[in-house]
Amino acid sequence: MAVETATSVVHPAGVTPGLPGVATDFASDKQAFVVPWGKAMMWIFLLSDTFIFSCFLTSYMHVRISSTVPWPNPSEVFALTVFGQHIPLILIAIMTFILISSSGTMAMAVNMGYRRNRGKTASLMLITAAFGATFVGMQAFEWTKLIVDEGVRPWSNPMGAEQFGASFFMITGFHGLHVSAGVIYLVIVAMKVWRGDYDRKGNYEIVEIAGLYWHFVDLVWVFIFAFFYLW
Amino acid sequence: MSAKEGQQHPIAIYLWIWGLLFVLSAFSYAVDYFHLQGALRWTLILLFMFLKAGFIVAIFMHMHWERLALKLAILVPPLCLLILIGLMAVEGDYTFLTRSGFFSN
Predict the structure, then answer these.
(1) A21-51 per-position pLDDT tens digit
(2) What does the longest C-alpha to C-alpha distance in chain A come to?
(3) What is the pLDDT of residues B43-61, one digit of tens each?
(4) What ipTM is given for this predicted complex?
(5) Reported pTM
(6) What residue of A is the nearest CA neighbor of B62?
(7) What backbone torsions phi and psi does residue A34 show, to the nearest 5 degrees?
(8) Which CATH class is domain A34-229?
(9) Do A101 and B96 count as a contact with CB atoms less than 8 A apart?
(10) Best A41, A48, A101, A111 residue to mutate vs chain B (most B CBs within 10 Å)
């Protein structure tokens, strides 16, 4: 076997030389992961996204450690007064529960997809998208409150360390962008489910792949919630 | 997996994880609400965070049922981040000390 591969590696039959050969080599039908290619690609994309968010959170950690000015207390900054009650961090808690619920409905949608239940899959995905849109709406409310009422800017804020604004807008903004993109993505896939595209194609993998993206958005929020809001 | 198409699991497991994530989030919120501080706060926050992240990846994202090759390819590379985080924590402490010294002069 060793001899066989040694000869075939040097001069494999029918190889394309030069630059086109790079493309044919990479597309040579060798499969490493025994999953649909779309799913492997989504996982690899999510891996790269993990690094992006980790870099944001790490740089946030660095500016927070190195700041000599006290960091604003997130518990107080994000407190709301509801019916005369002063509740710390309540909006963020509600946003967390909404995003978890959206992950739950998404998991059910994937399950219904593999059971070939077109109606339930599409409606569960639309419910997921609605939760996502609610989340973005609440984030817009939070941003407005911080910018307009409390005067937080990326370069300054009245509560303490200046880096607070930059970190906050960067991290939650990038996450909110992911949620918004996810809502659009889910609505498009839900429409295709509803039209019966995947019944005709005979597989519902696309729903699971969209689900991976959505669960990742929830996953990132778990880390943002712990590090940005609870620190 | 060959007998069935894709990732098919009983719906009950998703409902259980959903509930569990709610409970864990409520616990994390409680840590802040009751103003726990210091090492206890950090232990609890990180514990709940990793449990939530683990359940989302393992059950909701079906990583638990994937083949080892995919698990390793996706879960091992982020471990490099520990080095980055460690380096930046040390660097942050150093910058803090330098700044404290500079501003006190």
Answers:
(1) 887 777 776 777 888 989 999 999 999 999 9
(2) 81
(3) 999 999 999 999 999 999 9
(4) 0.92
(5) 0.88
(6) A212
(7) -85, 60
(8) mainly alpha
(9) no
(10) A111
